[in-house]
Amino acid sequence: MPVAVNVCGVDEAGRGPLAGPVYAAAVVLDPDKPIEGLKDSKLLSASQREFLFELIRTHAKAFSIAQASVEEIDRLNILQATMLAMQRAVEGLGVQPDEAWIDGNRCPKLACRARAIVQGDRLHPVISAASILAKTARDAEMQRMHQRYPQYCFDRHKGYPTPEHLELLERYGPSEIHRRSFAPVRRILHLA
User: Fold this and answer.
1) How many whole angstroms separate alpha carbon 80 and alpha carbon 169?
2) What is d(CA 192, CA 182) in angstroms, rounded to the nearest whole number?
3) For the sheet containing 113-117, what is the strand order?
4) Could you tell me the domains of the chain?
């Protein structure tokens, strides 16, 4: 197999939440501009992620952040919507990678070779970089959604099914950005 010259790392953020879009990012790192401290976004603080987010944006050869909407998640299912967001991220790079390294055990349909790597965000800096971009961008989106829907406290839980979020969902019912295909939201809609 030929050695991949332009490898892009791909990861997602937001498969598990009950609200908001799912995000994906694709990154091609520049070997001449190494970035120190890249690791799985879940192992970094919010301030570390934001610092690295800016470094990746300024030092990477190419990057792209994409999403699939709540409507697409509900229509397709979360796995297919995640694959769609990943596909959009790779297509948005502006360069054609030789190979995409995808965090996880499945690959979206891409125009280049693709390799699924379980825990890739912990093993390969290029996937870690994608993980950081996707998570930081999604968190920023949920901060914006908090401004529109302050009663749900999206600034704290980012849409994940925490006890606080579940209690607020029970109290106020689902918002426009809640995923109706997810069981806790569906249950409350059926009770209404």
Assistant:
1) 25
2) 16
3) 62-68, 22-28, 7-13, 99-103, 113-117
4) 7-148 (3.30.420.10)
Q: Give the position of tokens 């792209």.
A: 64
Instruction: Say which amino acid occupies 81.
Output: A
Q: Is the pTM of this model over 0.70?
A: yes
Q: Which two tokens stand for residue 46?
A: 């919010």
Copy the structure tokens of residue 189: 């809609």
What would the pLDDT profile of 136-185 be if each residue is shown by its tens digit?
999 999 999 999 999 999 999 999 999 999 999 999 999 999 999 999 99
Q: How far apart are CA 38 and CA 56, in angstroms?
A: 9
Both structure tokens of 152: 């749900």
Q: d(Cα 32, Cα 117) in Å, to the nearest integer?
A: 25
Q: What are the tokens at 178?
A: 């809640």
